[in-house]
């Protein structure tokens, strides 16, 4: 496995990471690893979801009712 070092982390971010780790009963390192893994995998998986959605719509197009509209705006009477 590879390792990274994060320098110049804001105190606020460090504190928030520590609080999240405590709430999830993890070490800060494990919490940071979980966040990085989840976010990177989500970025990689998202385009695939869109492609699957596109092909699903092409194969089974939804039947939408036709909406009729009056082209003339309603008249307003001022008294």
Automatic annotation (TrEMBL):
GO BP terms: regulation of DNA-templated transcription
Antitoxin FitA-like ribbon-helix-helix domain sequence ranges: 3-40
InterPro entries: Arc_rbn_hlx_hlx, FitA-like_RHH, Ribbon_hlx_hlx
A Pfam family per the record: FitA-like_RHH
Taxonomic superkingdom: Bacteria
Residue stretches spanning the membrane: none
Record-given protein name: Antitoxin FitA-like ribbon-helix-helix domain-containing protein
């Amino acid at each position: 496995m590879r390792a990274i070092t994060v320098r110049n982390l804001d105190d606020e971010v460090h504190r928030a990471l520590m609080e999240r780790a405590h709430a999830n009963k993890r070490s800060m390192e494990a919490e940071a690893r979980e966040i990085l893994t989840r976010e990177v995998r989500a970025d990689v998986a998202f385009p695939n979801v869109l492609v699957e959605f596109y092909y699903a719509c092409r194969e089974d197009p939804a039947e939408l009712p036709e909406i009729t509209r009056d082209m003339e705006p309603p008249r307003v009477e001022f008294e």
